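Hi W., the DP6 complex you wanted:
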Amino acid sequence: EQPEGRAFAPVNIALCKYWGKREEELNLPQCSSLSISLGPLGTETVVRRADAGATEDRVELNGACVDASTPFARRLCAFLDLFRPDPGARFEVSTKNNVPTAAGLASSASGFAALTLALDRLFGWKLAGPPLSQLARLGSGSAARSVYDGFVLWHAGRDPGGADCLAERLPEVWPELRVGILTVCAEAKETGSTGGMNRTAATSVLFREWAERCRVDLQLLRDAIRAGDFTRFGATAEANAMSMHATMLDARPPLLYWRAETVAALHGVRELRDAGTEVYATIDAGPNVKLLFRERDEAGVRGRFPDMDVIAPFRQPRNDSCSPR
Ligand code: DP6
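Structure:
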């Protein structure tokens, strides 16, 4: 039996979104982004060297063997290519997601982060958070943020090789923060993030303004987090998501990730706010909605959205690898 590396990484949800790359091969983003990790939701991965003679990587997802020709296995094996001690080396990877099925939470972020942390253990590199975030980024951009719990800032950087493109955990802790996950539609999204953001960058005229929006929103969010200003935090996160979806709609052909239920949820959020319950919404490249609110408003929000899953990001984190600075 070969030695193994095992690690968990949380899913994350961006409050200031990553939508657009300055370089595709290395997943270098056009703009910096900011997220909150949603431990204990995430991915646990075990990786080991396959016995000599193995001709293919063996990939298991939630206990079932995944065919090497699937997009999932191919993306994973392409990432493993970066880490083979010799060209013939093969790996066995077993990965488990505890994200509620089809919740539309990007499991590629937690997946590549967990695999990176597991490889770090297997090979005994003992890398710090920032270099781990750089490696995870090569699998999927948003994975750079999933190597940490809590609020995470992913710096776009300027270096063409990505030397300064890394994530750091922010020191602020908001124990009262809650994230509600509304699975409004379980269908698989039609256009993945990579293709969607590239199409937007190539064809949307609004996309030119998006970078400046993100620079301003990122500063507002950082200030709000530092000041403990939930209203500014939630309003900025919601507005940033709406701006991202505006660029998506402006792509040619347009990208429409929302379903009728998505719009209904957004109206529900507004109605709650008008009635004095402070709740904000954010949406990624899919139809599902994530709600941001505080512990004190949980009952009020649940009254309108009885089926939501609630995460307390600072109460129940589960990330055994990169502890806060
Ligand atoms: C809308 O990280 O999945 O969720 O780097 O091409 O793998 P690749 O894209 P990915 O994009 C995430 C897009 C988003 C916004 C965000 O998480 O910041």
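The chain has a mean pLDDT of 94.

W.
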